[in-house]
Design brief:
Pathway: Lipid metabolism; fatty acid beta-oxidation. About 50% of the residues lie in helices and about 10% in strands. By secondary structure, the protein is an alpha/beta fold.
């Protein structure tokens, strides 16, 4: 029966040529590719990376491809079709784990040259070659497709060169082949930003030759084989000037300025390396391919790339948390219906994000106008994600205003996002808990209240969990999943799985004052207020942090977070932690009392216009020790969180701080930075600051424990 059903399902799912008629099985000769010719001598080659849910280009996969291409060169087919056998997409790029095993620049050059040799065989194959792309074709996956004569894309396909996010530029020929195919400025923009290009944009650029529905793929392949589709070739008038060095240099100057504003070259060398490649060698493709390899191999050995590769794997470790615990408890119910209590800034945005991710969401608030505002923001979110009107309507249909709070009784997870007030939250729980259906989870978005206090009056405290989002919800990837001493393992597992289900990174933390992120971030912001109180210019403080590599300065960050929230969290930590915290200056408290709360009110530490802080261009430089005064208290708090087991290990901590606060990614995370700098130096510098500025800089005992362990 299976053999009869499979062809129909395969045909409906993806056009697989001669493989439509039989299941895909390994032939023993190849692990990563399926190969078969159809009745018209068209060879179909399906990429299917073994033991992986998505295709990535590994050394073994390319070695198999090399052998297949040798056979095709000697026994030429009418055409070659390459596509993915996996539903997840075409190819996500190179197997980044193999980058870590390259011991030297020379070894990297040798490996890259071998990969270039293989893909050049594809480019030189003496028959039409056709890449059929569904899902993502990224990095090396796109570079493989660029070696084909034709690219046919199924709606929903996306293309990109994200290597810049790893401190690299493309290394498998895209620096030459992409600018030859589409307008060079567009090609350079793709490579310099790492942003993806979606199906229709790719068609308009000439990156794909035809955009075809899956049911028409076979006909499009036939048309390409018969020469009825003209392959995309870059002949646009605006590409002609860049065949000469001077126009490339003029364009390169502007690219440098734009790249430096996002990624300073002293921290991120890859954009400059790519621009230099294009400026100096774009008129000699063969030489540029050679120089691309050298440049890529050199960048691979830089601390920036090694740390950004580390960040990639930190992200993978956080993603893996969404599956932790599910193996032992396979009968956990799927969370399909979410009920959110409180439609304010956080609650409304959480509800919108969950609906965007395909969940049914009921949203309660006592004020209809607040729910209406949240729905309006959800529509804007859909627009920012370039959703079609039909898909936007689907999202808004899933976001259901619920003025009567009826969703409690039907929801798989009820999440409260009411104000940070213990008594208000307890009143909500007293109303909610009796209405929860069996197996439902009660979650809180509290940012500061310990869950041991929140669970006190619950009949079933084992199903209360913290699911702490950061603002803005649609941009911040990290979500803290907060445990307390009576929560069940199944509740935690479901909470982590829910966070992964909505395309967010779960960071498992213990219930403690400020949890992890606010605990570590608050000393950074408190020291900022101390510097301002001493008369240091706000712009100077921000510049020190920006020069270190933070995405924004701490003064601007405090305004973004909200001065009222900064004040409350600082007061909470001052009350609940043993470590000394400086008193809040009167002028800061008066700002909050006056309602000057930062970006949300248009005035705070800066004045804000059109969502941007108004900063002076000229200001006095900050004192010499400003960087350590800002960064070391954050590191000290991170060390305390590790010592107190607020989070399990340094990798999870570094990942959480990078993805929640933007801690300079090229430094690999706060604890990685501390180890690179030397924990002895960190402790000594804290003691120096303690002598000069007070007890708030007292080194955490964990530093001495690390020194003893390393000795």
């Amino acid at each position: 029966m299976t053999g009869k059903v499979y062809p129909a399902l395969a045909q409906r799912d993806r056009e697989l040529g001669p493989f439509n008629a039989a299941p895909l099985t390994s032939d023993g000769e190849r692990q990563h590719w399926h190969f078969k010719r159809d009745d018209h001598n068209v060879a179909w080659l399906l990429m299917d990376k073994a033991d992986s849910s998505a295709n990535v280009l590994s050394e073994e996969l390319l070695r198999e491809l090399d052998g297949i291409l040798d056979k095709l060169a000697s026994d030429r087919p009418a055409a070659l079709v390459i596509r993915s056998a996996k539903a997840s997409g075409f190819c996500m790029g190179a197997d980044i784990s193999q980058f870590r095993h390259l011991a030297s620049q020379d070894e990297a050059v040798a490996k890259l040259n071998e990969a270039h040799r293989v893909v050049q065989k594809l480019a030189d194959l003496p028959c039409p070659t056709i890449a059929v792309i569904h899902g993502a074709a990224l990095g090396g996956g796109l570079e493989l497709a660029l070696c084909c004569d034709y690219r046919l894309a199924v709606p929903g396909a996306k293309f990109g060169t994200p290597e810049i996010q790893l401190g690299l530029h493309p290394g498998l020929g895209a620096t030459v082949r992409l600018p030859a195919l589409i307008p060079p400025i567009d090609a350079m923009t793709m490579m310099l930003t790492g942003k993806t290009v979606h199906d229709r944009k790719a068609k308009s650029l000439g990156l794909v030759d035809q955009l075809v529905e899956e049911r028409h793929v076979a006909a499009a392949v036939t048309a390409a084989v018969q020469g009825e589709i003209d392959p995309s070739e870059q002949k646009a008038w605006n590409s002609k000037p860049f065949e000469h060095a001077i126009p490339r240099q003029l364009a390169g100057k502007r690219m440098r300025s734009q790249a430096a504003s996002k990624a300073p070259p002293e921290h991120y060398p890859a954009p400059e390396a790519l621009i230099e490649l294009w400026e100096e060698h774009a008129d000699n493709p063969e030489k540029m391919l050679h120089k691309e390899v050298e440049s890529f191999a050199r960048l691979l050995q830089t601390p920036t790339s090694q740390n950004l590769v580390r960040v990639f794997f930190l992200r993978e470790k956080l993603k893996a948390q969404s599956k932790a615990g599910l193996e032992e408890d396979r009968d956990l119910p799927e969370l399909r219906h979410i009920h959110v209590i409180g439609a304010g800034e956080m609650g409304g945005d959480i509800a919108a994000w969950c609906a965007l991710q395909g969940l049914r969401v009921t949203l309660f608030d006592m004020k209809p106008e607040v729910i209406a505002k949240a729905v309006g923001k959800a529509a804007k979110l859909c627009d920012s994600k370039h959703l079609s009107p039909a898909r936007t309507r689907d999202v808004l249909d899933r976001l259901i205003p619920d003025l009567a709070n009826h969703g409690i009784r039907h929801a798989d997870l009820v999440l409260e996002a009411v104000p940070e007030d213990l008594e208000i939250k307890r009143k909500v729980y007293a109303e909610v808990e009796p209405q929860l259906k069996p197996g439902a989870i009660l979650a809180t978005n509290t940012s500061s209240i310990q869950l041991e206090q929140l669970r006190e009056n619950l009949q079933k405290p084992e199903r209360l969990v913290g699911i702490h989002f950061f603002n803005p919800v649609a941009s911040m990837q990290l979500v803290e999943v907060v445990a307390h001493d009576q929560v069940s393992e199944s509740t935690l597992a479901q909470a982590r799985h829910f966070v992964g289900r909505i395309d967010r990174l779960p960071a498992p933390v213990a219930s403690a004052p400020g949890f992890l992120v606010n605990r570590a971030l608050t000393p950074y912001l408190v020291e900022t207020i101390c510097l301002l109180d001493e008369g240091v210019d706000a712009e100077a403080i921000d510049q020190v942090a920006l020069d270190f590599g933070m995405p924004m300065g701490p003064v601007e960050l405090a305004d973004q977070v909200g001065l009222d929230i900064c004040l409350d969290v600082a007061a909470m930590l001052r009350e609940r932690l043993d470590t000394e915290q400086p008193a809040t200056p009167d002028w800061f408290s008066r700002k909050v009392e006056k309602g000057d709360l930062g970006r949300k009110t248009g005035k705070g530490l800066y004045n804000w216009e059109d969502g941007k802080p108004q900063k002076r261009d000229t200001f006095d430089p900050a004192p010499e020790d400003t960087l350590d005064r800002l960064i070391l208290p954050m590191l000290n708090a991170c060390q305390a969180c590790l010592r107190e087991k607020v989070i399990e290990n340094e990798d999870l901590l570094d990942g959480a701080m990078i993805f929640a606060t933007g801690f300079a990614p090229f430094r690999g995370g706060p604890m990685h930075y501390a180890r690179d700098r030397g924990t002895e130096d960190i402790a000594a510098r804290l003691r120096h600051l303690q002598d000069k500025h007070g007890q708030r800089f007292q080194p955490d005992p964990g530093w001495d424990q690390q020194e003893t362990a390393s000795a």
